Amino acid sequence: MASSELTPEYTTFEAYLDKAVALLVVVGWNSCFLQMIYQSFRHRTYNIPFLPLFCNVTWDFIYAFMYPSPTPIIHYTGLLWFVFDSILTYGAMKFASNEWSHAPLIQRNIPLIFALGIAGAASGHLAFVAQFGPVVGFRAGGLLCQLLHSGGALCQLLCRGSTRGTSSTIWLGRALGSGSLAVRTVYRFFYRPNMANMGIEGNGPLYMWFYLAYVFLDGIYGIVFFLIKRSESSSVKKGKVY
């Protein structure tokens, strides 16, 4: 949609919507990252499954250093997230063996798994750039990373059956960041289907599917987290009684 087709009211609303979403994304994800780092080193474990971690840290590096965004806030946020993900990667390499005593083959080969996983994820992101260009690669890679993160976190929580390494703040931060983007995407899909958007977020059924998938997965995660947390609290109380 050309700018001449936009009403002043819409332009003002869209500007405020974008600013609000940007603020919620930064606050939500930064708090999520900081809590993940804290809980990882506190519990001596990792809280992002391997595949999403590999995809995240390589996506951060490629679009922070190799194909940086011309928008300063996006570029500097990407740099900050690369630092966060690098710390989480270090923590995962340091503590991953604590979670794999039941699988000695994995436990003994953590460095090799990380080397191959990071190389594979980086090559995938770069192949996407070579095929579709950095703008589409940035968008599509980011969507895939977030889907793997939300889905992987839920699977990890279910497999462990424990809240070890995670917290309600991590969940709330992730839900706030992805949820705010979902609200804007749904609004654009239904009310501005023909808008020409040149920012980092697209418009259309595929984008809406991704963001609604995040909301669904993060919502299920929250329910499972609090059910497990309640079970853990009950076990502690019973232990004190007996």
TrEMBL record:
Residues spanning the membrane: 20-38, 50-67, 73-92, 112-132, 206-228
The protein's name in its UniProt record: Uncharacterized protein
Residue stretches in coiled coil: none
Any one GO MF annotation of this record: lyase activity
Family per record: Belongs to the paxB family.
InterPro entries: PaxB-like
Keywords annotated in UniProt: Membrane, Transmembrane, Transmembrane helix
Topology class, membrane: Multi-pass membrane protein
One GO CC term on file: membrane
PANTHER family: PTHR42038, TERPENE CYCLASE AUSL
Main location: membrane
Localization terms from the record: Membrane
